[in-house]
Write a structure and sequence with these properties.
single chain; alpha/beta; Oxidized Rhodanese, domain 1; 5-stranded parallel β-sheet
Length: 177
């Protein structure tokens, strides 16, 4: 297990800074933080959020957050690794989850834009297919990767840093925004 230190007295803002995956993990496991009825304030402590949502096992909530950080670490792949796979002509799907407006600013020719009109088409891909999701900074793509993992996909990745990471690490001619 991770050495990420989380205490019940920490504010949610502190926790989210230390463990960005906490938002996704809390929503997936406890339905906390996804909407106004189950939300929390950045200044609320973890202990208070648990109390407000009738969760008695605060240590288990902490373990859930720590585990989510480990999972995110395993799912992420660097832009350099994606470039190496592309250069080696490996068979995988590179899917850009950004909006059409964002794609108009900056895109990779090798990436398939997510079909927002037919998102279900991806569910028919083989569950063991290597899929790399990308976005602007790597956060939305982590959400999409988590969604696919939750639906039984076993070889799913999120490109760390997104298109910004690609521009920084692989090809500086790719516009940043």
């Amino acid at each position: 297990m991770t050495t990420l230190k989380i205490e019940p007295s920490m504010t949610m803002e502190q926790i989210l800074q230390a463990a960005p995956s906490a938002q996704r993990a809390l929503f997936q496991r406890y339905h906390i933080g996804g909407c106004s009825s189950c939300g929390f304030q950045p200044t609320d402590t973890l202990a208070q959020v648990c109390k407000d949502h009738n969760i008695l096992d605060v240590p288990e909530v902490i373990r859930t957050i720590q585990l989510s950080e480990e999972v995110d670490g395993k799912v992420q792949v660097s832009p350099r690794q994606v470039k190496a796979w592309l250069d080696a002509r490996e068979d995988f799907s590179l899917i850009d989850v950004r909006t059409p407006e964002e794609l108009a600013i900056s895109k990779l020719a090798q990436a398939e834009p997510l079909d927002f009109q037919n998102p279900g088409k991806y569910m028919s891909l083989p569950k063991d297919r290597r899929i790399v999701f990308m976005c602007r900074s790597g956060m939305r793509s982590l959400d999409v990767a988590a969604y696919f993992i939750g639906h039984g996909f076993t070889n799913v990745h999120s490109m760390t840093g997104g298109i910004l990471g690609w521009s920084e690490q692989v090809d500086s001619s790719v516009p940043r925004y």
